[in-house]
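so my prof wants the structure for this chain in the tokens format not the other one, which i didnt know existed until like an hour ago. anyway here's the sequence
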Amino acid sequence: MQYEKEEAKKQEGITRAYMEYSKRVRIFIQSGIRDERAVEDILQDVFMEALRKYDVFSVHPKQIGWLYRTARYKMQEYIRKNEYSQHMVVGSQDEHEELGAHENGYFACEFNQTLKEVLSEEELKRFKRFFVWGYSVEELAIREGVTVNNMRVRLTRLKQKILKEI
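here's what i got, hopefully its the right format
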């Protein structure tokens, strides 16, 4: 019974915040993202995050600032994922008729294969998160449950390992 009341209170609070701030947050997102479907997805993600962290959001003195910051993070996340997927796609056969056009795609494939052979699965994930998706050292440290200095050491060793093979 108490749980249901708390959930109803959260829903009511998020609904109020959505009605009050969603237009402003949408405009903020549209300033950096042109795909309207992505804008809507990011907007929903922002308010879902507010719901997940309602205890923090509800008492925050500047809720619109909290929403803007969350939107900025979600936009960066979207851009990282989008850039990564664009870099990993190799063009069609029609786009690469000349042998020279294959070199860039060949290099990317060769590099990816070398990484898979040299690095463990965990190291490969760390490599992608840091160098491809743009995670910060702090984010990686939190994600892996280690100190920031320990993560810096791990990244340095990872670089050395890759350079040795290349």
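also thought this was worth mentioning. The helical segments are 2-30, 36-52, 54-59, 63-88, 102-118, 121-132, 137-144, 148-165.
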